[in-house]
Amino acid sequence: MEPLEGSRGVLYVIACAAPAAADLHHLVPLAQTSGWQVHAVVTPTGERFVDIPELERLTGDLVRSTYRMPGEPKGLPPADAVIVAPATFNTINKWANGIADTFAVGLLCEVMGFGVPILAVPLLKDALARHLAFGRSLAALQEMGVSVLFDPEAPPESRMPSWERIMQELHTVVGGRQTQG
């Protein structure tokens, strides 16, 4: 499916296993209203948090969580931007270290290599946010060009920004960049 004329392009929304993923179906219409063609990817554990049939209905596409088998056609068009929200401790650390043991992390590692703008929105417990590996991983991802929307000083119940705020930040990250379409 090619991006529509005048659209912003293809947006991958990648969700991990955190409570905010249950509301991912609220992000898709916001992105579509802003001109994005949305494709959803979830981590294997993240599948338990999202409403896959609803996401597939909203996007008109399969929600992906596993690598395709050899000989199967590629299912995703090239991305123009990526949102990783909620991004968990596990995914942030594996991604920063290139441990592509899930489709979601492998896809993130690959799109970084293409220079696609990526916005990561971590959501994790205070104790995990204080872990040395997490801080190092965030710094590594930022050094590789990933934009991060995370306030470690925010109270845990307020740490996940609204989907509207996430879209606003994505548009700031993407800026005037031309899409592939």
Automatic annotation (TrEMBL):
Domain of life: Bacteria
InterPro entries, per database record: Flavin_trans-like, Flavoprotein
Residue intervals of the Flavoprotein domain: 13-104
Pfam families per UniProt: Flavoprotein
Lineage: Bacteria, Bacillati, Actinomycetota, Actinomycetes, Streptosporangiales
Record-given protein name: Flavoprotein
SUPFAM superfamilies hit by this protein: Homo-oligomeric flavin-containing Cys decarboxylases, HFCD
